[in-house]
Structures are given as C-alpha cells and as structure tokens.
Amino acid sequence: MQEKELIKNLKNSKSRNGAFAELLSQYQERVYWHIRKIVVVHEDADDVVQNTFIKVFRNIDSFKGDSKLYTWIFRIATNESITFLNKRKRKRSESLDSEEAINLTSQIVADPFFSDDTVSRNLAVAVGQLPEKQRLVFQMKYFDNMSYKDISEILGTSEGGLKASYHHASQKIMEHLKKVEFF
Amino acid sequence: MKSLEDIKKHINKSDKQSKRHAGFEVPDGYFDALKEELLAKAKEETPTITRKINWFRVSAAAASVCVLIACLFLLINNSGGDNANGSLAMSDLSIEESYDFILAQDLEDISTDDILDLENIDEILDELEEELAN
C-alpha cells in the first residue's frame, strides 16, 4: 500500500484498524530494532515498541504529512526510548550508587538475546560506550543506512552536526576496537 | 578486520543467517505475537476515538452554549427599560430631583438645552423665585 493511501486509511475511523495492521507489517520490525539498539534489553524494547505504536495509533490525526510517515514514527520511537532510558537512569541512581549499574555495555554482555558472534559483540560494546547523541546517530547511519536528511528530521539536528557526530563516533569506536586488540 | 566497513559486511552476513540485527536477537515468533498484541490494543482504543470525534454532540453542545449566551445578552439589555445604557435624561427627573440637580451644579455646567429639556420648567422656576425671595 502506498504511504498516502495508508495515511488516508489510518485517519478514517472505518478503515483505521485494517490500515494499522498494514502499518505494523511494514514498520514494526524496523522500529523494534531501532528501539532495541537504544535500550538494549529485549523486554524493555518490547515495552517501548508497544508504547510507540499505541501513540502512533492515537495521534495519527495530528500527523500533517510535513515529513515522511516513517520519520514521524521513528521520531516517536526515539523519544520514547530516550524517555525510557532517562526513567531507568533515575530509578537506578536512587537505588544504586554505581555508574556500572547503568552501563549499557554490561547489559549487552549479559543479554541472553545477543549473538555469540565476537565481532558483533565487540562492536555493540564499543557503541554502548558512546555518548547518547553520537550513539543514536551512529546506529541510524551505520546499521540502518538512513540518510542524514531523515536522521535530521528524526533527531531535529542539522545535517552538518550529524556528520560531525558520526565522524566522532566512528573514531571513538575504532579507538576502542584497537584497545581491545580487535584490529 | 581492517575497517568499520569490513565489520559491517561481516555482521550483515552473520545477521542474515540467523535473523538477527546488529547481533541482537528476539525470541522465536516474537514479531507475530507483537503484531497480534498491538492489534488487540488498537481495538481497545477504537471506542475512545469514536467518542472523541462525535461531531454531532460537539455541534449540539456548541449551539446550546450560543443560545444560552444570546438569551443572557437579551435579558441583560432589556432589563433596564428605556435607560438601558444606565444614563438618565433630564426629562426623566421629578421636580424635586430637577431642582436639587440645578442647585447642585455650577450654572456654567448646565446648558440651555438641559434647561429646556426639563418637563416642568415653569414650576421649577417658580420655586426658585420663591427660594430667592426668602
């Protein structure tokens, strides 16, 4: 189904549920993987992806069509993921006085739903150590092959800023991989 | 491995073989279950949305409010009789009131029209004459 037709059907109360099923078929996996790379743990990603799509369903009438439907959905998904991470950080800093507790790297190492492939694991650990903004840009560009224009729409940052972030992120990852004698 | 591009090629190949993404995995059948769960949640949401866009109810409520405001406006404007704007004409004053009014004012502030507007001008002048004579 074409995007325009899909949006039209999503906005019509009679065809909304059918169009939503179509929307899920087209986007749920991509959105899930996007969220999963940000929040890392599968159970958390499951909660966030559900909140994301329910928000999409509730707010489709407010989608004006100024951007692509997928960048609008990814913007909601990104915001939901960041909100989730911030909540988790607050909870943990109240109960545990350790930065290690919020370290995404340790979560990747302990994740039962992560590949035993050493290359993937080393890269994920390196990405997990990046600052949040650089991590988001790197993941969207490197793993999802998104254009800077689309990433710019999702994150609300200039394309120049994104290119700089991606460059810094790549350098840090290379340095990390050299340190662990991966290269 | 010599570069990030080499790593990417390796991960993409590895992911394709095992239905993974960047090394992340999901339980078997997860995406089918997710779709079902989200569709069920969407169905629960639908009645709320129908209520939200019940334009007939919204229009009826808006019309009722307009009628109420119009009634209140008419009621307020008609309750004051001829003097709806709250001011009094000189011709509406009784003799005593006109007399008191003239005495209370500086004569320069009273125009000829105001005097002529008084209904009982002759009686008032007579009373003034008597007052001055005393």
Question: Could you walk me through the main structural features you see in this protein, from its secondary elements to its overall organization?
Answer:
The complex is a heterodimer of chains A (about 180) and B (about 130). With about 180 residues, chain A is mostly helical. Chain A folds into two domains: about 1-105, Rna Polymerase Sigma Factor, Chain: A (Orthogonal Bundle); about 115-183, Orthogonal Bundle (Arc Repressor Mutant, subunit A). Chain A has helices at about 5-10, 15-40, 40-60, 70-95, 105-110, 120-130, 130-145, 150-155, 160-180. In chain A, α3 packs across α4. The longest helix of chain A is centred in the middle third of the chain and has 27 residues, at about 70-95. Chain A is globular. Chain B folds into two domains: about 5-80, no CATH class; about 90-135. Chain B has helices spanning about 5-20, 30-50, 55-80, 95-105, 110-115, 120-134. The longest helix of chain B has 24 residues, at about 55-80. The model of chain B has no long low-confidence stretch (mean pLDDT about 75). The chains are: A mainly alpha (about 180), B mainly alpha (about 130). The interface of A and B includes residues 17, 57, 113 and 121 of A.
